[in-house]
Amino acid sequence: MTAATQPPSLSIQNLSVHYGEQGALLGASLDVAPGELMAVVGPSGCGKSSMLSAVNRMSDLTPGARVSGRVLIDNQDVLNGAVDVQALRRQVGMLFQQPNPFPLSIAENILFALREHGVRDKRELHGRMEQALQATGLWNEVRDRLHKPALGLSGGQQQRLCFARALALEPRVLLLDEPCSALDPIASATVEGLIDSLKGRYTLLMVTHNLAQARRLADHVAVCWVRDGCGCVLDSGPAEQLFASVRDSLAHRYLNGMLC
Length: 260
Prior knowledge:
10 helices, 10 strands
């Protein structure tokens, strides 16, 4: 990986998200170092997914959503109105709780995404498709049925195909919103292994309810909570340190299983 393609830093500064008059997230701040994985944990409704959707401007698609603060990727504020949102979403990929392959063939799931982002050369299209499938461990499993429907894959394979679709676009940041929550334990372990393999090459921000998963995968952890009806970040820091001696008392109780 050349210096020009090193994973970027990600800095969220005083980020607030509102839907109409309802606040979802208030004044959240955290920093993710280049190539590291930050796990965002906390109970449902504390603004974790709203935080992710603001980073690649998916929140723009929600009627009534208002976002304030700063989201810096290599010191460039992606919330700036002059940012090319399509280019941003190519650079900041996103994976969701439920696998969401297109109702197309396995190959077309990736080729369609590439064409939508301007790739036209056939050799490049197929080269990047194979490379992405190799990176997710799918190539040997699907190489003989690339033209079969993607919806015929198992749930774990579908989620890895969604990873491949994102990786084919050569992003620099990946946002992961509970990427294993809909999978069985075996498929979940396979996807966790994939996520771990991506560290160092991509900057990752992952929402998870699974504290054991956060311990296994994360370099840093941020704990979110609801205060006065709005989500916020209680504390953040290196994963090992935070689990051992988190400063905030609520965060301590949550990480130690004393709060649900």
